[in-house]
Write a structure and sequence with these properties.
mainly alpha, 6 helices
């Protein structure tokens, strides 16, 4: 990254060094997450289907971000940003933006559902959801300002990516634990 204002999506613009690798990484990571959540299932946690579905939206949108990379670097190029705001760029740019919005919305909704589902629990999993929800409450206004003012996105986005990673891992650990704890069908004799 060449600027603290540059967004990670700017690294996927065709012509940037390693753009194709970044595009493929987005696609692959989303597909792997879809596979992981399909394998973990949505039935093992009472009330957990809603956050599972929201995590699937997150993963699918992440993949779409790699399929539809930005056509120009709006985070560091004023001409690109002005063309974007006046809707003079190819559809691919806007599909990438929509995918990013769905990605952030999916994981945020999943966090809200998981937080609500575990709010009366005293487990480590519930504590992680509580900490993530508090962090999101503080960090989202900062992210909004970074995007609107086009400043410091290169510092703000990584904070969210760390939070996203913690959310994904917590969801998968919780689901794996639920799978191990549920009785195996046919073993009740």
């Amino acid at each position: 990254m060449r600027s603290p204002n540059e967004l990670f999506s700017d690294l996927e613009v065709t012509g940037q060094p390693f753009a194709t690798a970044m595009q493929h990484a987005d696609l692959l990571s989303g597909l792997l997450l879809i596979g992981a959540f399909l394998a973990a299932g949505n039935k093992g946690i009472p009330g957990g289907r809603r956050d599972w579905f929201a995590m699937m939206v997150f993963a699918g949108a992440g993949s779409l971000g790699g399929v539809f990379p930005q056509v120009c670097a709006d985070g560091i190029n004023a001409v690109c940003r002005n063309m974007e705001w006046s809707f003079r760029l190819p559809l691919q740019q806007y599909l990438h933006i929509v995918a990013g919005i769905l990605e952030f919305a999916g994981i945020t909704v999943a966090l809200q559902f998981a937080f609500q589902r575990t709010r009366n629990q005293k487990t480590r999993i519930a504590n992680v959801y509580r900490y993530l929800a508090r962090a999101a409450f503080v960090a989202y206004p900062i992210l909004g300002l970074a995007y609107l003012l086009n400043r410091l996105g290169g510092f703000v986005e990584p904070v969210f990516f760390v939070g996203f990673t913690a959310m994904v891992l917590t969801q998968l650990v919780e689901r794996a634990h639920a799978l191990r704890s549920s009785p195996v069908k046919g073993s009740e004799a």
